[in-house]
Amino acid sequence: ALASARSDALIWARDPEQARAINQQHLNPRYLPGIDLPPALRATSDFDAALAHVLDGPDPADRLIVLGVPMAGLADVCRRIAQALPALGPDAAPVHLLWTCKGISPDTHEWPHQIVAQALPDRPWLRTGVLSGPSFAREVAQGLPVALTVAGRDPDTTRAAQAAFHGTRARIYGTRDVMGVEVGGALKNVMAIACGISDGLRLGTNARAALITRGLAEIQRLGVALGGQADTFIGLAGLGDLVLTATGELSRNRQVGVAIGQGRTLEDILAGGMTAEGVRCARAAQALGRRHGLDLPITDAVCGVLFDGVAPTQAVAALLARDPRDE
Ligand SMILES: NC(=O)c1ccc[n+]([C@@H]2O[C@H](COP(=O)([O-])OP(=O)(O)OC[C@H]3O[C@@H](n4cnc5c(N)ncnc54)[C@H](O)[C@@H]3O)[C@@H](O)[C@H]2O)c1
Ligand SMILES: O=P(O)(O)OC[C@H](O)CO
Predict the structure, then answer these.
(1) CATH number at residue 217
(2) Do residue 287 and residue 230 come from a single domain?
(3) Which residue has the higher pLDDT, 256 or 272?
(4) Residues that constitute the known binding site for NADPH
C-alpha cells in the first residue's frame, strides 16, 4: 500500500531470494503469488540497512517501521531492532513503530504491546502502536480499498500513520485503545475458527450469524475486563475484522475451522506451515477469561475441539444445551 503512493517504501525480508524476487521481478511468489507489486517497492535482506533506511531518510518527521511478522517472531524482531538502533538522545525526532500481529503469547499470555515494551524499553523517541482491522493481505496487495485502525498511546503515532498512508487505497482511523484493538484482533481469529467449523459441518448461515454475534459479545467481555473500551469492539478492529475473518474465504483461521468441520485433523491442516494465529492463542484467551472469572463458551468450545479431542458435533450440542440467559 505504501509503495503505491511513495517511492521510499522498503521491505526487509529474511530470505535474500525473496528480496531478489521483489527487486527484480516485482513479485512475491511465496506469499502473494500472481500479484504484480508496485515497481517502487524495494526489498533488502540486510536488517541493518533496513533500519538505516528509516533513520537516514530525508524527512525526520517521516520515520515509520511496520512489523508484519507473526506473533511468534515479534519479540525476536524487536530485540534485533533494540540491538541495531543507535543510542539517540531524548530530543531525537520520533521513530514510529507499528505491528500488525494479532494474537496472545501462548506461553506468557502477553499481548503484543507488552512484548514490544519488554524488548524495546526506555526509548522516549520511540512511539509505538498497533495497526489492525479487516485487511486480507492479498486484497491490499491488489490495490483494493481497505480501512484500518491504528491504536497508540501517543496521538503522534496515529497522525504519522495517517500521513504515511494518505494517498494510498488504505484509510487509517485512530484510537488510543491499544488493549481493546489487540483483544479484537486476537479473539476474532478464535471466532473465525468457530465459524469455519460450523460452516464445515454445514450448519447454515443462521448458525454462522449467531456465532459472530455471540462471539462479539465474548470478545467484548474479555476486552473490557482487560481494560479495553466497549465501543472499540463495534469498530474496525472488533466487528469489522470479525465479520471479515469469520466469513471471508481468504481467512486462514476460517480455513482451519472449515477443514476441521469437514473431518481433517489439526496436525494435518497445519503441516504446510500456515500461519493461523487463532490456534496459537485460543488457550491463552481461555486462561485469561478464567483468571477474570468470565464465561467464554465459544472460546472453550474451540479449545475443546482443537486440543481436547471433543468432536465438532459434540461441541455444538454443548453450546446449544447451555442454560438459557438474557442477551
Ligand atoms: N496476512 C494477512 O492478511 C494479515 C492481515 C492483517 C494482520 N495480519 C497479522 O499480521 C501478522 C503477520 O501475518 P502474516 O500473514 O504476514 O504472516 P506470515 O506467516 O505470512 O509471515 C509474514 C512474514 O514474517 C516472516 N517471519 C515469520 N517468522 C519470523 C521471525 N521469527 N522473524 C522474522 N520474520 C519472520 C515470514 O518469513 C514472512 O516473510 C499475524 O499476526 C497476522 O495475524 C495478517
Ligand atoms: O488469514 P487470517 O485468518 O489470519 O486473517 C487475516 C487478517 O487478520 C484479516 O484481517
Answers:
(1) 1.10.1040.10
(2) yes
(3) 256
(4) 14, 31, 102, 137, 252, 277
